[in-house]
Write a structure and sequence with these properties.
Blueprint lengths: L1 E8 L4 H15 L3 E8 L7 E4 L3 H14 L7 H14 L3 E4 L9 H11 L3 E4 L43 H12 L5 E5 L2 H7 L9 E3 L16 H6 L6 E6 L9 H8 L6 E6 L3 H4 L6 E4 L5 H10 L2 E4 L8 H8 L4 E4 L13 E4 L4 H12 L4 H14 L2 H16 L1
Parallel strand pairs: 1-2, 1-4, 2-3, 4-5, 5-6, 6-7, 8-9, 8-11, 9-10, 11-12, 12-13
Helix pairs in contact: 1-14, 3-4, 4-5, 11-13
């Protein structure tokens, strides 16, 4: 089989890493894997197709910022991509994130409907069935169930600074994304699957395949003092937070408020902050930039006493899984699919915005020996989230769609 993946980035985001891991499974089983991507080239085992260029993407950004027409730019880039797809003639086309200023969904789906090829679409967020945003949970909006209008999330990604085109976008997407004869949707969580079933995509079959992680990389490190010593935290109990981008929905403000409540023997370490966010942090918060060194990231997870994910909008955060694999318990807000990765022996779930509840949950875990949780956390990751177990499901899905 020849499988073509389409995603905004290569490997640097979670969907990109998922496409890469599926590609490895395909190649290991004698098949071919192609990845078409918009930006961030990285070494990959799959054959790659670059979509567009910086100038094209900046024009798409302007179209989004002014006219709120995200997904309807990149005309020339998409026409070139379609010619390449015809040349490759893949057996199955696997879609990932189509937002990100790099592809024209109208041209792409017109081609997909005419080509008649089997399509898998892994949804990593809610953008495919809204008129604007990728996450509406933060603002509690349910317009997407009937039609989008007066978007309360207009200024959030993909931000529009002027017009609100959410109603027209909604109906254009509904027309484009429905009516495909052979499309299967995959979501990483039951929560997102249930959202899909309430949207205009409800007539498609939906499979739930949790994200997988590399358990050979994300594993407990027995020597953790070096991390704490490096940042002056040797004698501290350590609360860890990790995000690739700390937007307002990731809970940075809650960490700052939390810092005024924790005791002097406890510190917070946040990974993924930009330079501006690192300035002026409270004294008991250490802020670091994003790291692409997964071995170093695993060392941070292992050094922490608890991983805290106060996210206000999420589908199925991989950070929770990485922490579990490193033997560190997780506390998360009751947001989207985030709680689905936990049970009573591996962490705790707190209602969104309940800072007192978050503080108490953290205290409850910190007051216990981490070893009480470590074995259960690792065992849960091994049972449910091994990349080998998770991504072989896609190969079986491809085979079923071709039979």
């Amino acid at each position: 089989m020849k499988i073509l993946h389409i995603n905004v980035a290569l490997i640097t985001d979670a969907p990109g890493r998922i496409a890469e891991e599926i590609g490895k499974v395909l190649i290991d089983n004698g098949h071919k894997s192609f990845i078409a991507y918009g930006r961030y080239p990285r070494p990959t085992i799959s054959e790659t197709i670059k979509i567009g260029n910086h100038a094209d993407q900046w024009m798409h950004v302007l179209l989004t910022r002014i006219f709120d027409k995200h997904g309807f730019g990149s005309t020339t880039a998409t026409k070139k991509l379609i010619k390449k797809i015809v040349e490759i003639d893949p057996d199955i086309i696997h879609l990932h994130n189509l937002h990100g200023y790099y592809i024209n969904i109208e041209l792409l789906f017109d081609y997909l409907k005419n080509a008649g090829k089997p399509i898998v679409w892994t949804l990593h967020d809610c953008w495919p069935f809204t008129g604007h945003c990728s996450h509406y949970d933060y603002v509690g909006c349910d317009h997407w169930k009937s039609k989008c209008y007066a978007c309360p999330n207009k200024n959030e990604y993909p931000a529009s600074w002027l017009l609100d085109n959410s109603t027209r976008n909604y109906f254009r997407k509904r027309k484009l994304f429905t009516g495909l004869k052979s499309l299967r949707i995959v979501t990483p969580s039951d929560w997102l699957a249930n959202q899909v079933k309430e949207s205009f995509l409800k007539d498609y079959p939906v499979d739930v395949f949790p994200n997988g992680i590399d358990l050979a990389v994300f594993k407990p490190f027995t020597e953790n003092n070096s991390i704490k010593i490096r940042y002056g935290l040797k004698s501290k109990r350590l609360i860890l937070g990790v995000a690739s981008f700390w937007g307002r929905h990731k809970g940075l403000d809650d960490f700052i408020r939390l810092s005024s409540l924790i005791s002097e023997d406890t510190s917070i370490l946040l990974i993924g902050l930009n330079k501006k966010q690192q300035v002026g942090l409270p004294a008991n918060i250490v802020g670091l930039s994003r790291t692409e060194n997964v071995g170093e990231l695993a060392a941070f997870y292992s050094a922490a006493d608890v991983f805290v994910n106060p996210t206000y909008a999420d589908t199925f955060p991989t950070t929770n899984l990485e922490s579990l694999a490193c033997g560190t318990p997780v506390i998360t807000y009751n947001t989207g699919g985030s709680p689905e990765s936990l049970d009573l022996e591996t962490g705790a779930v707190v209602e969104k915005g309940d800072l007192a509840g978050l503080f108490n949950a953290i205290g409850s875990i910190l007051d216990q020996d981490k070893r009480k949780f470590a074995e259960s956390c690792r065992a849960r990751a091994q049972l449910l989230y091994s990349k080998e177990t998770c991504y072989i499901k896609y190969l079986n899905l491809y085979k079923g769609m071709r039979s």
